[in-house]
Design brief:
alpha/beta; eight-stranded mixed sheet; elongated
């Protein structure tokens, strides 16, 4: 499977790193206007083709992945649409809110195999959570192709398009929220006497431990909480402080904030 990625910024770059490291594609072409960025990718991954020419980039691709800012999508599509063969090529939008119907409208053809996919920057390390929605005319074979591609860089869910936005808030924006929690835990650790690097080590390993525990056991989070919470103990006191401060409500509101248009 030959893929072309147009846009090598933070998200596009994470995908490129993840796919290039895996060695599980037949070829990767990266197109971007930033020559320095392209040179960096070529140095890291000599097998990757790089170009500043979007038209040349899409020519031999099986899957064309558009990872530019949403307001640049129409500009890029206008440039390439006469050079994309929608009878054989799959087109993926990784741009927030640039859905499959917008792809069809921009290409002037509703019969293409169009996808709206939102991954996250952990794709670089094979740890993305990606949400995949197909267009109304997209065939099942193309779904398998795109899912297989994003499976390389992490976990995937094939969902209806209305769930991609909530998925983005949980898994893409959600990464930032998790980082903020880790930062807060570091600050608490420093206040209690640990050096910042020590506090970071503790916070990261604690987060890793919690994730591993849930994945390996299949427990519900509350079941795991019960394992470490004893009557009158320090854990329940800390949990109650989180509740008194509106922790659950704050998390839910943060996830829903981006959906309030």
């Amino acid at each position: 499977m030959r893929i072309t990625v147009i846009g090598a910024g933070n998200m596009g770059g994470a995908l490129i790193h993840g796919w290039a490291k895996s060695g599980k594609t037949d070829g990767i072409t990266v197109s971007d206007k930033n020559v320095t960025l392209l040179e960096d990718f070529k140095r890291l991954y000599p097998q990757v083709n790089v170009t500043t020419d979007n038209i040349a980039a899409v020519k031999d691709a099986d899957v064309v992945i558009l990872v530019v800012k949403p307001w640049l999508m129409s500009l890029v599509i206008n440039e390439i649409k006469d050079h994309v063969d929608l009878t054989r090529q799959i087109v993926v939008s990784d741009a927030a809110n640039f859905t499959t119907d917008k792809l069809a409208e921009a290409f002037g053809n509703e019969n293409g195999n169009f996808f709206y996919v939102i991954p996250n920057i952990a794709a670089e390390f094979g740890a993305s959570m990606s949400f995949i929605a197909k267009g109304v005319k997209t065939d099942d074979k193309s779904v398998d192709t795109v899912k297989g591609l994003y499976d390389i860089v992490g976990d995937t869910l094939v969902v209806t398009e209305n769930l991609v936005g909530p998925g983005m808030m949980m898994a893409s924006c959600g990464i930032a929220y998790v980082m903020r929690y880790i930062r807060a835990q570091m600050e608490g650790g420093c206040e209690m006497g640990f050096y910042p690097k020590q506090a970071l080590q503790i916070a990261l390993q604690t987060m890793q431990g919690a994730v591993s525990l849930l994945k390996e056991t299949g427990w519900h989070p509350e079941e795991a909480i019960d394992k470490v919470t004893t009557p009158g103990g320090v854990t329940i006191k800390g949990l109650n402080e989180l509740d008194h401060s509106g922790f659950n409500s704050a998390v839910i509101r943060s996830l829903k904030a981006g959906l309030n248009k």
